[in-house]
Amino acid sequence: MKISLVIPAFNEAGNIGRLVEESFATVPGDILGEIIVVDDFSTDETGDEIKEIAKKNKKLRYIRHLSNAGQSAALRTGVLAARFDVIAQMDGDGQNDPADIAKLFERLGEPGGDGVALVGGIRTSRKATGSKRWASRAANAIRDWVLRDDCPDTGCGVKVYWRDGFVLLPFFTSIHRYLPALFQTYGYKTDYVAVNDRPRLAGVSKYNNLNRALIGLYDLFGVSWLRRRTRMPETSEE
Q1: 215 pLDDT band (50/70/90 cuts)?
Q2: Distance of alpha carbon 224 from alpha carbon 195, whole angstroms
Q3: In the predicted model, is pLDDT for residue 189 greater than 60?
Q4: Spatial distance between the Cα atoms of 224 and 16, rounded to a whole number of angstroms
Q5: Which of 99, 156, 214, 234 is the most buried (most CB within 10 A)?
Q6: Where are the beta strands (DSSP E) in 21-156?
Q7: Residues 6+ apart with CB under 8 A from 220
Q8: Where are the beta strands (DSSP E) in the chain?
């Protein structure tokens, strides 16, 4: 199996180039098929950093949105463009550690089989500010109470999963926060692995607690409805 590593990025100059170089250095070459950076219409030097690295490494692909569409849309653009059957995703701010990808990959089943289709990271030592840590804990508790997906850290940006599973999911603009629940809804197995969490070294977060809470509640009701109304019957071919 080979990995397409998809990294959505918006105004991550100072982070994204360092993260891509680190990914090439730490993700084993025998499993890394390509890195796709999807630039969500950045207005800084994000694109320049990536294009400079792409001159030296043909495994790096740069895709730019012509308007700002959000993190989930950038993720979907990268997954649809991917050339390999396994997707690894990371946030573009450098807080996810690419060295963790191989650990998640080891727990993943063969695409199309009956093994685990998504492996998510669990941040065991958060480096975010106190208010964001508490907000994340509250959001995870509420989400788990509503969705019953047994995912301890759905907001962790590093995940590895089957590409074919992702493209079957209904798309909406916060889907990246609900991938474990949606994979389960469509009959796939999920698992979780403890991962590293690092401080942001440059730039600023694109989210705050208030907008996350408001959008999160809205989406939570929608995902809950999908889980209750989706049926995935077992089949046999004769």
Answers
A1: low
A2: 27
A3: yes
A4: 34
A5: 156
A6: 32-39, 60-64, 86-89, 116-123
A7: 142, 143, 146, 147
A8: 3-9, 32-39, 60-64, 86-89, 116-123, 159-162, 189-195
* Dist. CA 162–CA 169, nearest whole Å: 12
Residue bearing tokens 């982070």: 15
Dihedral sign of CA atoms 219, 225, 229, 232 in order: positive
Q: In terms of pLDDT, which residue wins out, 223 or 140?
A: 223
CA dist 98 and 88 (Å) reads 10
CA distance 95 to 200: 6
Residue 128 lies in a domain: yes
- CATH code assigned at 21: 3.90.550.10
Record the pTM. Answer: 0.88
pLDDT of residue 196: 95
For residue 15, give the amino acid letter.
N
CA distance 70 to 63: 14
Interval 186-193 mean pLDDT: 96
Does residue 186 sit within a domain?
yes
Specify whether the CB–CB gap between 105 and 160 falls below 8 A.
yes
Tell me the residue range of the domain where 27 lies: 3-229
What is the residue whose two structure tokens read 């992702």? 166
Give me the helix-helix angle, 46-54 and 16-26, nearest 10°. Answer: 30
Measure the CA dihedral 51/52/56/61, to 10°: -20
Token digits of residue 71: 């993190």
pLDDT 10s digits, 104-122: 999 999 999 999 999 999 9
Is 108 among the domain residues? Answer: yes
Domain contains 234: no
From the list 193, 3, 203, the residue with the least C-alpha distance to 94 is 203
